[in-house]
Amino acid sequence: MRVGLAADSHRKIGGFSKGMRQRLGLAAAFLGQPELLVLDEPTDGIDPLGRIEIRDLLAAELRRGCTLFLNSHLLAETERICDRVGVLCAGRILLEGPIDELCRSDNRWRLRFADGTDTDVLRENQFVFSQSKGHLFHGTALQLNQAVDRLRSHSVVLIDLRPDERDLEEVLATAVGAKGITP
Length: 183
Known about the structure:
Layout: H1 18-30, E1 36-40, H2 48-64, E2 67-71, H3 75-81, E3 84-89, E4 92-98, H4 99-103, E5 108-113, H5 119-124, E6 127-130, E7 134-138, H6 141-152, E8 158-163, H7 168-179
Parallel strand pairs: 1-2
Antiparallel strand pairs: 3-4, 5-7, 5-8, 6-7
């Protein structure tokens, strides 16, 4: 069985765990290869490895051409499954669009420097250390290039540079705060 319940087919549903019931609901939803799947928290109650399996099943449905309408408070899961989101807050559409566009940041950069880099030189050039993200720089691409050039004049070695994309939680918190909405 696609949802991983074949070994439990002899059991009564009343003895199923929440995760097993979620899998059973997905099995029912997949019947007949629907063109549209409307799912509410499909990975809720599923263990971490099971979440991967469920995401793989949903990805297979998307590749088949199915449209997935997903309701979830698990934003990290949503990011892994969906390519477009709409965020409802207090009965209003707060945000809507492709995830990559909503999470993009045109003026935040994440950098990693060689071990032993002089942190004073980094601070002097507006590179801020974040425990979870490494060094961050806020500014345009031109400002970033100028700051990196200054670092090179101090023999600082840049190991990695990438745009600092926000996750959906940060996007949501920013949007709620900007609109003064109390969820």
